[in-house]
């Protein structure tokens, strides 16, 4: 709802909000931003015995559950014990009663669901799940070049907004994230970070203004809402070796002048905190 209210008021929704505005779809005006739908929860009951349900969908023990929708495809799994458990997969436009499980006929969808789930959720210490210890898988990119793409935007918001549908006012290539904002008041560094080995990585981020780090679709570090300039925030991720999509937003406050600080570092087991080397950034 945050995104809808923001757009109705003439603003872009905060990047930190989970959803996208549905106003373009409701009004037929503007371009609808793409989105996925993800839900996870635990419930001790079973699914209902409604006669309208397919027989195979009645009385299923729920337990730990997940649901992910990607386009017209929905994956659901019940009584989850680990990240390896299989999904039941349906095309909900062609099969709204979810009678035809595509998992066997379309095996690539099973791998897609299992990877996508881990690439869009962040473990919550107050709501432990049986898949919290799973490592986030890398993406398969055949060709990648050195450096990141740096996009500049001029925005009116006092927060870091969603930029999916915004047109950049400038675009360049850089070796690594830097603090310079030459044009506009928001820059986004996009590309991949090359993780050398499977492991638990701690990321460190600080800025003199506002920043937001996202890896895959995971909000890793939020230095927008209620952030004190200069404070260093950290986050821990379990990552598989390989390339992981990264976006680092850096927002210049209206009352700041010139170059503002931006520092991104990492550490892992057996290796102390260090600035992420330029060789780790690709696009």
What does this structure look like?
The chain is globular and about 65 Å long. The relative contact order is 0.15. It is mainly β and 283 residues long. Strands 5, 6, 7, 9, 10, 12 and 15 form a 7-stranded antiparallel beta sheet that branches. Strands 1-2-3-4 form a 4-stranded antiparallel beta sheet, with helices on one face. A 4-stranded antiparallel beta sheet has the order 11-8-13-14, with no helix packed on it. The longest helix has 12 residues, at 107-118. The chain contains 3 helices and 15 strands. Helices cover 8% and strands 36% of the residues. It has helices at 2-8, 23-27, 107-118; strands at 37-46, 61-70, 73-77, 88-91, 148-153, 170-174, 186-195, 199-207, 210-215, 218-223, 233-239, 242-251, 262-268, 271-275, 281-282. The two termini are 33 Å apart. It folds into 2 domains: 37-119, Arylsulfatase, C-terminal domain (2-Layer Sandwich), CATH 3.30.1120; 148-282, Galactose-binding domain-like (Jelly Rolls, Sandwich).
